[in-house]
Write a structure and sequence with these properties.
This protein has about 190 residues and is an alpha+beta fold. Helices cover about 25% and strands about 35% of the residues. The protein contains four helices and six strands; from the N terminus they run ααββββββαα. The chain has a six-stranded antiparallel sheet. Keywords: Oxidoreductase. InterPro entries: Actinin_actin-bd_CS, KshA-like_C. This is 3-ketosteroid-9-alpha-monooxygenase oxygenase component-like C-terminal domain-containing protein.
Amino acid sequence: MENVADISHLNKIHTSMPFVGRLNSIWDKLTKSLGIFYRGSWTDDPKEPHVAFTQLFVDYKFMSKYSLLQTSIIVKSVGPGLAVVKPEIGFGCTVGILSFTPLGPFQQRHEILWYSHPATMLLGRMAIHGAVINLERDIFIWNYKSIAAKAIYVKEEREMKAFRRWYNQFYSENTPRIKFHVDTLSW
């Protein structure tokens, strides 16, 4: 949930097909000719301040040129811990519900529920598998992240800055904070 507005990370980390598993695996190298490319935007809802929307346009391509399938996905974020994912497909209906619950510092519980019409059951199974693989890819990056009190953004990251401002409304001055301890090497 913490990078739902970072559309640019999708084209860096999530372009490999989810069925290949982890990045840099043998299957990832063999399927480089197939890729997923993303465009999108993030906006908060002025009528409901606890709600935000991410609109994604997903293009499945062969050899980075030939479009095999195009679809759009609407992600409705309700507060800091719930996201409703609705892919726009031409047949049937499928909806994903993602829940994020903090357990402690740098620990979260992620629950993914996916509901599909029987006609889209296979698509639903592929979507939940893809969501789990992509979450594993994100966790690999999150394990090495650092927290910057005043992050510096480039012009292309204005949605990320707005997202952080929107996300910050759910925390007060009384919210428990992580205290960092810095050891000095004074002799």
